[in-house]
Structure formats: C-alpha cells, structure tokens
Amino acid sequence: MWWSTLTGKLEQAESLDGTVDAVTKAVDLVLPRGPVKDALHGRWLTHPLHPLLVALPIGLFTSTSLLDLVGGDPARIAARRLVGAGVLSVAPTAAAGLADWSSLGAFRRPRRVGLVHAGANVMATLMYGGSWMARHNGHHDRGRRLALLGATALATGGYLGGHLAYSEGVGVNRNADRQQEPAEWTDAVGAAEIGEGQLSRVDVAGQPVLLARHAGELHAIGAVCSHFGGPLEQGAFEDSCVVCPWHGSRFHLTDGRVAGGPATVPQPGFEVRTLDGRVQVRART
User: Model pTM?
Assistant: First the structure.
C-alpha cells in the first residue's frame, strides 16, 4: 500500500535527525528524568499513559464532526463545546507522548516517525483551535470546514501513532509472551560464578534470567528490559536496582518492580536459592 511505502521512507529520512535531536533536547529540558516524567510514562498505571489519553481528543473531535454532519443548527453550541474540550485535552495527551518519544534513545526509526506524528497532531490542534474561534465568533460554516481539515490531520497522526505501536513496538512490553517458567527449581549456574556486584545472564528453561549478587544476596529477574528489550546484564547497579544500559529504566532486583522510567511494566520475577554450590531458580507465582 502506498501509505506503508511512505511510512517506510519516513523511517529512513535521515534529514529529520537534526530536528529530532533538537526537539528531544528541548523536551528533556522541560521534562527531565524524575517523578513527573515517570507519571507521564504511566509507571503508576503499569502500562503507558499516552494511549489512554489519546482517546479523549479523538473522541471529542470525532463527536464534533458527527454533530456537524447530522446535528444541524441545534447542535452548534454542543459542537463548539466539544471542540473546545478536545483542544484542552491535547496538552496532557501530548505531554505523555513526548515523554515516551524522548526516551527512545538511539532508535532513529521510531523517533523520525514520532516527530511527524507529533507534527500532524499539532496541525490538527491548530485547525480545531481555529474551528473553535470561528464558531465562537458566529462563523459556523468556517468552523465546520476547519474541523474537517483538523480531522484529516488527526487521521494522519493516528495512522502514524498506530505504526509506532504496532510496527515499531513503542510502548509494548517486551516480555509479554514469556511463559512463567520454570515452575520447579531448575539449575542455572555455579554459585561461585556470580561474584559480588556482578550481573550475569543465564538461560533457564528457555527464559533469559538476570542473576545478580548485591550485598551478599542473590537476586533473579528477567534479563530483557520490558521497555525496549535492552540487555540488563550490561547495565549497572544503583542502590538495590539494576539500570538498563539503553534508556536508563531502573528495576528493583528483589522482585523486578519498576523503580524509574521510561519502563512501566515490571520485569518477570524469579525465586533463587543455592543448593550444593549451584544456583537454582524458579518463576514466581
């Protein structure tokens, strides 16, 4: 299809990289790593916040178009209010999206697509904002036309947003399809091979497991970062957490809980014990 061809070209558009880097730097200045950005990522929801918020402007703007098409003059006031509410809902939605986008690090393809996705949504917001002003000033036909232009830009942004989620895998839990295995205690590695302050990856019953010895205690969690698949064994210790080397997500070694974004989904957790000089693990139930 022609639109997928265009999206593929967009992914390869190196000419966008300068703008991508400049906008990322600006976003990071306004939204530095910390509790506010974690809240926008959706850490408190245990999944990304942006897809949830997207339903607000899309629903409000779509309802506006429906009233414009079939509501007639009696629906003018309701349509104007819906447009206004939609414009107001854009700010938190965009903030959550920018928080996620700015945390993609060196992954150029989704960042390029995300930049144009944001641009299309900015254009849509401007059109709908103009539509509200026109309606407010009594120019209802102009308001309807501007809303239709806004809907076109919104559809473009929506298509690119779907591409980011379903083709690029942005916001997808990279451990979603992993089974809770092994169910029984299973040999992993010799206990002497895991030194203090060491992060090691082992495959146990087909599961990538991160083994870590911290303050004399052994811990085991999933080795593949839930945010974008980063190799946690190449990360670093920070207090009682492991820090992903790709985008800086932090996970508690004791149970895999997210201690800091951009990750929102916990790591798979494993019980661990030492028996006869061997480390054994089993999935937490």
Answer: 0.89
